[in-house]
Amino acid sequence: MKAAFYDAVGGTDVLRLGELPEPQPEPGEVRVRIAASGINPVDIKRRRGRTLHRAGARPVQLFDRTIPHDDGAGTIDAVGEGVDPARVGERVWVRMAQTLGRPFGTAAQWCCVPAAFAVTLPETVALHEGAALGVNAVTAHYAVHCDGPLREDATVVVQGATSGVGRYAVQLAREAGATVIATAGSEGNRELASKLGAHHVFDHQDPDLVAKVRELTGGRGVDVVVEVEFGINWANDAEMLAEDAAISVFGSDRKLEFEFEPYALCAGNHRVHFIGVYWIAQAAAQAAVDDIGRMLAEGRLENLVTERLPLDRIAEAHDRTEKPSATAVKVVLDVD
Fold first, then answer.
1. Across the chain, where does the E strand assignment appear?
2. Regions of the chain short of the pLDDT cut 70
3. Between β-strands 271-274 and 241-249, what pairing exists: parallel, antiparallel or unpaired?
4. Where does residue 221 fall: left (phi above 0), alpha (psi -120 to 50 degrees), or beta otherwise?
5. Using CA atoms, how far apart are residues 25 and 39, in angstroms rounded to an integer?
6. What is the pTM of this model?
7. pLDDT at 310 (0 to 100)
8. Distance of CA 222 to the CA centre of its chain
9. Are 44 and 322 in contact (CB under 8 A)?
10. Between the CA of residue 85 and those of 34, 113, 256, 278, what are the distances in Å?
């Protein structure tokens, strides 16, 4: 099969294209003929040797050979023992192909995953759009809901609302009935956040951001902050929170090590949830898949693929994903 892979960690120069053996599904697995492969920042981290496994985010090469990418979409063409044969021919979006230390992801013509990680994709959703879901959409759902059911009058702040996770968090928080306050760094991204359904949108660098958020909530504060850069924003987040509220943290790339004042959160009985989508409970993952599937079927979830490149331009696609941009970028590779 045609595949992209790397045998050593490093920059985009380690990426190779070639022919590899077709995989066969193990018991409980399905094999997906991949049409499109989605790229996420975590895929860049792995390629550079930064693992997010429980041992910590430290340089390590996990496998002799890696086919990158967690996310993708395609059609099931074979099933392993214990999987309903009727699933053959089913259009699916693939999530977390590399979870639990699996070396072979979706940047290839075929990929085998546990049956639960291949989720039915409605006919109305293009395969390249399905490839954008996976890690981002499930993380976003958990970030909105991991602190429990939202109040009827809940307010959710989504920091970095046009990040891969943020764009889904805006939509999923609004779907849950919350008033959504979004932040973004550029005018174009703020316009996008508004189009995604945010009720209020601010520049994340606005010095009056906390005051404006508290004014919008009548001084009460917000129920959940979905946070992409905890190291930079934690103090503002703490000031935005209502009593007995929470920050859902899925990233802090720009400031990995920092001083943190716990009493700033203790005083309001606040909680901080650090989210690793690979380790969330199965019930929570299934709730995410169910809600995402319903919204897709009803045509109410935007996937916002901004660029499609062929598999042989994977190095360029990784560069486009990694480099800062004034506008939101989501690159998907056309595999087949």
1. 2-5, 16-19, 29-38, 71-79, 91-94, 110-114, 118-120, 155-158, 179-184, 200-203, 222-227, 241-249, 271-274, 307-310, 331-334
2. 51-62, 100, 324-327
3. parallel
4. left
5. 23
6. 0.94
7. 98
8. 23
9. yes
10. 18, 15, 46, 27
How big is the chain by its Cα radius of gyration, in Å? Answer: 20
Q: How many CA atoms lie within 13 A of 279 on its CB side?
A: 9
pLDDT value for 223: 98
Structure tokens at 178: 């919350």
Structure-block tokens of residue 49? 């040797």
Supply 55's token pair: 């041992």
Question: 17-20: long-range contacts (C-beta < 8 A, 24 or more apart)?
Answer: 17/311, 17/312, 17/314, 20/67, 20/108
pLDDT digits (tens, 9 = 90+) for 242-297: 999 999 999 998 888 888 888 888 888 999 999 999 899 999 999 999 999 999 99
